Amino acid sequence: MTFKPAPFADGRRALIAAALLIALDLLLALIAFLIPVGTLPFLLLVAVILLWAPIAYVAWRAWLCLSLSYWIDRNVVTLAWGPIRQTLPLDSIQEVRRGEAVLAMQQGKAEVHGPNGQVDTAALALAQRWPRLEPYLLYGTEVGTRRRYRGARLYSLATRPLAEQIVLMTPAGAYGISPESPERFLDALQQHHQLGPTHRLAAQRRWPRLARWP
Question: Which residues are CB-neighbours of 162 under 8 A, at least 6 positions away?
């Protein structure tokens, strides 16, 4: 069974931002080729090349946001975003927390959180330095947010704030999700758990083959 996340606009915003950056890049390239050879066209071409870094980043975040989904079968819960797949065997889910139980994880504990991988570090640092830029940099903030509490590591793949997420507690860590129909998701989780697995699997995160090259 496939469950979509609760609706949010960040994926579309990131897609629009990527399109605008590509349009700006093409415009700068056109101007560089139309004006006489000199220092200015050289600087414009450098800007054209450098712009591909933010374009790639924003397009990547758009892909993650727009492709986020949750799958359940008799063996595992799979969290899918972009090309990445995180599998959680049903028998490894020790507890499901919601609402007050999620808030209780935060009480009296300093929250330390970070982005999903090093590629997001620069955007997070800029948003912390200039908070007004946050809406233009952190698309899908909860898609790939790592948090660390005392004795707990929580990884959110959600479209809602932490307090509104369903947290799946496993020995490998906690995973926060936000299905569009939480009750239907939990009913499906219970039904598949009662059926029992057809075979045993281990929790793992799968990246595409290209990302696994040495």
Answer: 102, 106, 142, 147, 154, 156, 176
Instruction: Indicate if the pLDDT at residue 125 is higher than 90.
Output: no
Rounded CA separation 196/94 (Å): 15
Q: Output the six-digit token pair for 85.
A: 């797949």
Q: For residue 104, with 0-12 CB atoms within 10 Å meaning exposed, 13-18 middle and 19 or more buried, which class applies? A: exposed
Residue 145 CB-half CA count within 13 A: 22
Going by the DSSP 8-state scheme, the letter that residue 133 receives in this structure is G
Q: Which pTM does this prediction carry?
A: 0.85
The residue type of 144 is G
**178-199: pLDDT as tens digits:** 999 999 999 999 998 888 888 8
Per residue in 133-155, pLDDT tens?
888 888 888 898 888 776 678 89
- Give the strand pairing for 166-170 and 173-177: antiparallel
